[in-house]
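As the next step, I selected for study a record pairing a protein sequence with its backbone structure tokens, which the following lines show:
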Amino acid sequence: MKCPYCGDEESKVIDSRPTEDSERIRRRRECLNCHMRFTTYEVVETVPLIVIKKDNSREPFDRQKLLNAMLRACAKRPVSYEALERAVSSIEQTLMSTYDREVTSVRIGELTMQELKKIDEVAYVRFASVYQQFADVESFFNELKKLMGDRKK
């Protein structure tokens, strides 16, 4: 495993344990060259999931890309990294549980908004404003009204 700090390929495993969902194994490693520690995750290799983008181009599903988008939406919000990891795992599990190996970016966006709505409403609105590309203040306000209506229920 290549060290993210110095690039050396020699490291030792210090700790190994399954994640909460038991889908991956989390390993703490120490670089034998610079002695810095880092975490890696081991996952079962599956048939790749292909994302069909809005312009009909296709690319492999990237878990990290989804996590980064959610991190941006949650910037300066009281949301833990672990909560976002669980949400991404939930989205990934939902996508993998279907028989289709191709999924639209629209579907991923909808699932992401559902998860963010549960975690943090401000992050949800931030993500929705970028994802749904609100044309004007009125469409943004309508989304806020829907959110407030859901909150009352």
Remarks:
- The helical segments are 63-73, 81-96, 105-119, 121-131, 137-152.
- DSSP finds five helices and six strands in the chain.
- The radius of gyration is 19 Å.
